[in-house]
Amino acid sequence: MLGIGLLGIALLLFIWWANAQVSSSTKNQLFDEIDQVPHHKVGMVLGTSKYLNGGQLNYYFTYRIEAAAELYHAGKIDFIVVSGDNSRENYNEPKDMEEALIERGVPKDHIYLDYAGFRTLDSVYRMQAIFNEDAFTIISQPFHNERAVYIANHLNLQTVGFNAQDVTRKYGFKTLLREKFARVKVILDHFIDKKPKYLGPQILIGEGLKQEKVE
Length: 215
Known about the structure:
By secondary structure, the chain is α/β, with parallel strands linked by helices. The chain has helices at residues 2-26, 59-73, 93-103, 120-129, 142-154, 173-192, 207-214; strands at residues 30-31, 40-46, 77-83, 111-114, 135-140, 158-163.
């Protein structure tokens, strides 16, 4: 029994350490005020479902889209990558995000869709591997930005996070609880050098627009 108790304490301490490590090491790279955000060519919106299981609009989705559109219209980013899950029929996070951004005045040809952003690690990793961007702005809620920027730091990418409006603790309780364990997985993924399941052909952001201007 003593051994089990010590193991439990060690596990709790590791969870606490992982969460503290992710938060403390990224706090200077996250921004709440748009005026303070440095300019990057590309901003990446981390995916989430547009609707909850009961059919209600997902505030995480809405607030991320609003933050991305705000950054774009303020001239803080020139292009947007929407990275999310499209692994099931009739479920397409990138397409939903694209349509929502267009509704908010972002031109379609300034939006790029990443259909293989199944995990935050995949989304961050693919920004360099697929889209050839090693410096960019990550757009999500604060807790998610901390984890994404932490991943980027370990991949030697130069990123900042722009914090979308957060939700209430009551609304986001389950998400915040899952986040505790997601940060443990981030640490473990780093130790085993975890890679995305899918990569694919490279995409050069903005190249088509440059060619059109020359012609």
